[in-house]
Each structure stands twice: as structure tokens, then as C-alpha cells.
Amino acid sequence: MTGTQVMAETVPESDRCTGAGVSPAPVRRARADWRKRGEIVLLSGPALLMFVGFVILPVAMAAFYGFFKWNGFGWPTQFVGLDNYVHMWQDHTFRDAVVHNFAIVVLSLLLQGPIAILFALLLNQKFRGRSLIRVLIFVPYVISEVIVGTGWSLMAQDAGAVNSLLEKLGLGFLKQSWIADPKLALWTLMIIITWKYIGFAVILMLAGMQSIPEELFEAAAIDGAGFWKIQWNITVPLLGPTIRIWAFLSIIGALQLFDLVNIIWGQYISATAGTSTMATYMYQNGHLAGSYGFGNAVAVMLFLITLVVALIYQRFVLQRDTDGALTGDSGKARR
Amino acid sequence: MKIRKVLTAAVALAAVGAIALTGCSGGSGSGDDGGKQTLTLWQNSTTGDGKQFWTDAAAAFHKANPDVTVKVTSIQNEDMDGKLQTAVNSGDMPDIFMARGGSKLADVVAAGKVKDLTSKVDPDIKKAIGDAALSAFTVDGKLYGVPTAVLPGGVFYSKDLFAQAGITATPKTMDDLEADIAKLKEAGIAPIALGAKDAWPAAHWYYFFAVRACGKDLITNLATKKDFKDGCWMTAANNLQKFAQVQPFNEGFLTTSAQQGANSSAGLVANHKAAMELMGAWEPGVVASLTPDQKPLADLDWFPFPEVSGGKGDAGAMMGGLDGYSCSEKSPSSCEKFLNFVASKQWQEKYATAFQTIPANQDAKGAVDNPSLKPLMEAYGTAPYVALWLDTALGQNVGNALNTGVVEMLAGQGDPKTLLQKITDAAARG
Questions:
Q1: pLDDT tier for residue A9 given thresholds of 50, 70 and 90
Q2: Per-residue pLDDT for B98 more than 50?
Q3: Is A179 in contact with B108 (Cβ distance < 8 A)?
Q4: Number of CB pairs, chain A paired with chain B, less than 8 A apart
Q5: Fewer Cβ within 10 Å of end Cβ, chain B: N or C?
Q6: Which residue has the higher pLDDT, B165 or B262?
């Protein structure tokens, strides 16, 4: 990333140097030119090498392996073309996983967004113990996924704490197989995800709220607007950029969800419980099954789906936030 | 100046990196050079007596062969296959690694990474182990590993809970078993513990129905001939589905793990929360580690998988697995020496006690003292044949699809037809 930025900033400058005819002797100019290039290569080279070596090359290799039937031993030799992709889409388990992924994307946005905004509104007021509550809400986000997964799976088991608590409260009729019942499991997962990631959303929203100028609220209050009216007409619209960035991160995270599912439902049963994701499918049918060619094909598909979603989102939702910053001159020209 | 320094540093770093990436195979002993040798060993026991056994064996071997040091590495069982695969690909294999035969071993053999031990294992030890156990480690007529334990399966049960439910004799047929399940349920006891979260324990039910339904040739040759056209596969699936309809398993079996903690299936048996579990010969050891006082469960006993009428399998046929060890292709000759050492009567006896299991060397059988293993050993001795666990025989790819397919069916999300479809699909993308 940094490599490309360095390039983008330095190249025009060197153009200017060589392009302007005012420079003295051509020999010195050539030397200065060489020096500039050397500097560019030196400064951006390592970063570029890392980026190509650890991002571009692995993606290209995954794409390559995806065309082979390969069990991981030695060099792949059995070329099968697009067979892996055909098998993948013919497998209802994979299609289910894609559906689960998109359900998690939508439910994450619908559940976490409103809750996070409400929490942020609350925590933006001044009251005793505010910092303590801020910390408490953020704590689950800091705990590692493995610990969250283990803890919740122990609590949500049939003989776990949740069911015992319900029974003790006299609510025994509400007892459920929270993680084993395929009708409930996805919702249990959503509760855990919300619990885990709400802190991150709240912190983002709070930061967004603090950047809204105080005068706007004062002016609205003087004009006689009530609390909710102020929030709805001032806070929420001005929070737009923050919400859009949070939603983007949430979508990407939901599409790549792996660890919580893999910890709670283990290596084998997430598909049966109705909580499998593309990433757990890849792990199960690529790595665990030893079908590395197929696994790489799934990885490529996961990459493509995420990329397409990200590009669509950038094009239609994030455009006004990122114009100029990411798209450069062409973006401005379009406007 | 500065730039040059940075450049030199970068070049040096790149060089070091390149060496690290390419040169790692130089580490472990390659070939015989007469001097000191180090043997690396990967085994799957991470705690307790099992881990201690390997430490002791390594120390004793070093004492007898001062030139050879055995370096033991404990690897969590579920990580073993993946780590070994990476090691095979990178050329940095351990000298001695745990293997279980079947297609899983055959894949590594096909990659040319396993030493042919045919003429290197002591004939006396071969004789003491017997052809049946050795055949699981034989690929194309050549021996590629030495078994350390035989692990046939069957139903482990609690005698106390059976008595509590008024059951006087162990079930001989499926109908008997279903009647006993009804009695146990009436007495308020979960009949069968099942750790479906790990998939293979659930799949074992299908394997045993397949042993009953399918003929000997089909089921014992799966490692080399993966043939699912025979109708017996469907019969076995139908039988299992029919059996599942009496709801014999503990509640929430889908998210129950096999061996971790008191709520696992082995833990349910260990704490008298469930009466039976279909398992391999490692069960007494696992249950012992999960009882409240961590002592073997006193009333644990064993009976063979009930007979199913109308199948092509011989009566008394069993299913089971083996634990064993193989040498990597590049390992020094002390590798086979160590395997011969561990397979000797003396060390096999220690192995049997440490792992609470049945040693592969039949001369060491006297060391087995767990009461539930005795009927199991007897049945094993008289079984007409013992088929290898289907997932081991079929290899990771088809084996995994089979295991998860069985879980799906038991959870009511698929039928025998989709199960068989899954297996054939997996074979296609392997």
C-alpha cells in the first residue's frame, strides 16, 4: 500500500524536474534523474516486494492451484479446469454457506447499527460512571475470539449456564438447544456476534458524534427542537460517513467470518447446525479433507465475492466519502 | 552512506530469508555419517502417562545407543495430519512419525516420502505382531510402518446403569439393543453418548452398520478399491437411519464433543450420565481421565456391536484401527532400530499400561489389566476379520465427507441418498 503511495507522490515531481527545460547541463540532469529513480526504487522497493510477495503472489498461486485436483503432496499435475468451481456450486453445503454469510451480513447491519447508535447517544451524555460503562461495552471486542467462542459454547450448551439460569428463574419453558438446534443456531450466533462486536461500533459512533460541532445542537435547542428530534435530524445525518465506514468494515468482517463459528461448532458440524460460512467450508473441504486444489478454488471464490461486494459498496455508498482520497483526479473529473 | 547501509542490510536480510526458506531440510539427520545422530519423533500424546512413555522410551534408547538422541515432539492429535502434510511438502519431515495406515499413509507413500521397512523390521517382532495388524501398514506388498497398538471397536457400557434399568444381559441383536434403549429411557438414563461435534464418533455408527451389511472383500480392500456401487452402502445407511428414529443418543449430541471435559460423550459415560458409547479400544483410558477421581471407571464393560440380520458381513466381524509409527524416507538407520526397540515385548507392555490399551505385539498382552479390555481382546482374537476405520481406509478427503454426511443424516437433514452422493462428490474433487 505504502509503496504505491510513494510512487504516486514522487513520480509527478520527477516528471516536473525533467520536463522543465530550465535545468542546467544534461549530464547533471541525467544523474539527478538516476538518483531520483534510485531513491524511488529504494524507498518503495521493499514495500512493493513485500506486497507482491505476500499478497499478490499468494492470490495468483491460489488461482493457479484452484485449477488442479491436488492433495497437497508435491507439485499439482492433474489439471481439471473449472471442475472445482462447478463442484463447489453444485454442492448444496457451499450454497448454504454463501446464504449464511449474506444472512450474517444483513443481520449484523440491522442488529448492530441501531443498537450501537443508541448506546453511543447514551454514552455521549454526561453522567456518573460513564467511562466505566464505556470500558465495559468495549471489553468483549478486546477479548480474543477463541475465548469468546469457548465461553459462549459452554454457556449455551443444553446443560449449560443459560438453560440453568432460565430454569432457576422459573422460565424453564424457554429452555432451548441454543447451539444444537439448526433453527436457532444462526440466531444464537448473531447474538454472540452482536455482543462481541458492538463495542467497536459504539466507539466508532462515539468518535463520529464528537466531531459534530456543538453549535448545531445549541442552535436547534434554541429553535425549540426536542432531544429525539435533534438526534434524528442532526446527529444521525452528520454521523453518515461514520456509519458508512462502519457498515463497510462490518460487511467485510461478516463475509470472512471464521473463528467464532469454528470454535463454537467445531470443525465438522457447522453446516449441519446451519451456521457454516464460506471460510469454514473452505477449511473443512480444503484443509481438513486434504483437497488442497479444491480448497484454493473456494478461497478464490471467497475472494471474488468479497471483492465484488466491496467494489459495489465503494461505487454506490462510499463514493462521496472517498472521492478524491482514493479515486484521485478521475473521481473529481467525474463529479 | 546511509543508503548503502540500508541496502546491505536488505540484501543480507533477503539472503538469510532465502536460506531459511530453502535450507531447512538440512536440520534433521540425513543418512548415516557414523557420528552422533538425532532422531526426531512426532507422537500424539500431550499429557500424562502417554507422554511420559515416549520420554522414557527415548531416554532408554539413548542409554542403549549413546550415539543416538531421540527428540520427542508432542502434537495434538487433530493437528497431526495437517502438520505432517506441511512437513512432507517442505521436505522437513520428522524422522519418525505417527501413522494409522490406510489411504492416509498410502498418500504419503505415493509421494515417495516413507522408508520401506520390509526387510528392516526384526522377523521375530513381525511374527509377534502378526500379519493382520501389519497389513494395514502394507502398501503394494511393502511394509511402511510398525504398529504399536491395535484398537478394535465396540460398545462400552456401564454395568451399574444397565442394572439400574433392569437389563440383565448385553444385547445380541439390534432388536435387543432397541429394547434396552427403551428400558434405559424409562429409568431416566440417556442410553447412548454420542460426540457428533467431532463427526467421527457419529460416523462410527455408520461404519459398524456397513461392516454388518457389506461383504469381507469390499470392506477390507477400501484403501485400494474405493467402490460405493454395492447396494450394501445404502442398506447400512438405511439401517442407521432406522435406528436413529428410536432417538438413542444423548440430548444435544450434535454439539457434544468426543473427549473434552465432563460434558463430552466420554465424560457422560465417565460420570454415569449416559449408559453406552460406541468406541475404539482407547475408550477406557479416555474415560479414566474424565471420572471425578481420574481413576478408571470400575463398572465399565464391553460388548460387540449387535448383529444385524440379512447382511453380507460375517458374524463377529469387527472394525478398528491401529496406531503405529513410520520412518521418513531420509531418516538414518537408527530410525528402524528405534521402532524395533519400541515394538519389543518389554516396551509394548509399558505401552499397554501407559495408554490403557491393547499392544500390537501379542507377546505383551499379559500387561493389559483393564477389565473392559479383556472381552474386547477375546472378540478381537476370534474375529474372522477386522476392517480398518472407514475414514482411515478411505483417506482424509472421502473420509471427511462420509463423517460429516453421517452427522447431517443423524441430525435429520439428509437421507441415505444424500449421504452416498456426498461421498461420491468428495471422491471427484479429491
A1: very low
A2: yes
A3: no
A4: 115
A5: N
A6: B165
The more confidently predicted of residues A1 and A70 is A70
- Chain B residue with minimum CA distance to A273: B254
ipTM: 0.75
pLDDT score recorded for residue B27: 40
Residues B202 and B412 sit within 8 Å (Cβ to Cβ): no
Residues B165 and B277 in one domain: yes
Range of the domain at A25: 2-65
> Which of B110, B396, B404 faces A271 most closely, judged by CB atoms?
B404
What stretches of B260-344 show up as alpha helix (H) in DSSP?
Answer: 265-270, 283-290, 334-342
pLDDT at B278: 96
Three-point CA angle A116, A120, A123, nearest 5° = 140
Q: What is the span of the domain harbouring residue B229? A: 152-320+387-429
Q: Exposure of A111 by Cβ count < 10 A (0-12 exposed, 13-18 middle, 19+ buried)?
A: middle
CA distance A279 to B371: 45
Return the minimum-mean-pLDDT range out of A106-115, A157-166, B15-24, B249-258: B15-24
For residue A239, the 8-state DSSP code is: T
Residues of B in contact with A74 (CB under 8 A): 89, 111
Question: How far B347 CA lies from chain A's nearest CA (Å)?
Answer: 33
Binned at pLDDT 50, 70 and 90, residue B179 comes out as: very high
CB atoms within 10 A of CB B185: 16
Share of chain B above pLDDT 70, in %: 92
The CATH number that applies at residue A101 is 1.10.3720.10
B430 has pLDDT over 80 = no
A215 and A186 fall within a common domain: yes
Lowest mean pLDDT among A92-101, B154-163, B224-233: B224-233
* B2 domain-assigned: no
Dihedral, CA of residue B209, residue B215, residue B217 and residue B220, to nearest 10 = 10
Residues B95, B43 within the same domain: yes
Q: Does A74 touch chain B (CB under 8 A)?
A: yes
Torsion angle defined by CA atoms of residues B199, A258, A287 and B391, in that order, rounded to the nearest 10 degrees: 0
Beta partners for residue B386, in sequence order: B318
Distance from CA of B164 to the nearest CA of A (A): 23
The CB density around residue B229, as the number of other CB atoms within 10 Å, is 9
- Cα angle: B196, vertex B401, B326; to 5 degrees: 90
User: What is the b/e burial string over A25-42, where b = at least 16 CB atoms within 10 angstroms of the residue's CB?
Assistant: eeeeeeeeeeebeeebee
Q: Hey, which residues 357-396 in chain B have their CB within 8 Å of chain A?
A: 395-396
How many helices and strands, by DSSP H and E, does chain B display? 19, 12
Per-residue model confidence (pLDDT) at position A332 = 45
Same-domain status, A139 and A216: yes
| CATH for B131 | 3.40.190.10
Residue A98 identity? V
Determine the residue among A269, A270, A280, A298 to mutate to test chain B binding: the one whose Cβ has the most chain B Cβ atoms within 10 Å.
Answer: A269
Alpha-carbon distance B24 to B7, whole Å? 26
pLDDT of residue B356: 84
Nearest to A269 by CA among A200, A176, A196, A181: A181
Q: Find the mean pLDDT for residues B285-310.
A: 89
Distance CA B56, CA A235 (A): 69
Name the closest residue on chain A to residue B8, using Cα atoms: A42
Is the pLDDT reported for residue A8 higher than 80?
A: no
Residues B32-72 have pLDDT tens digits of 455 788 999 999 887 778 889 999 999 999 999 999 999 99
Task: Give every CB contact of residue B185 below 8 A, 6+ residues apart in sequence.
Answer: B191
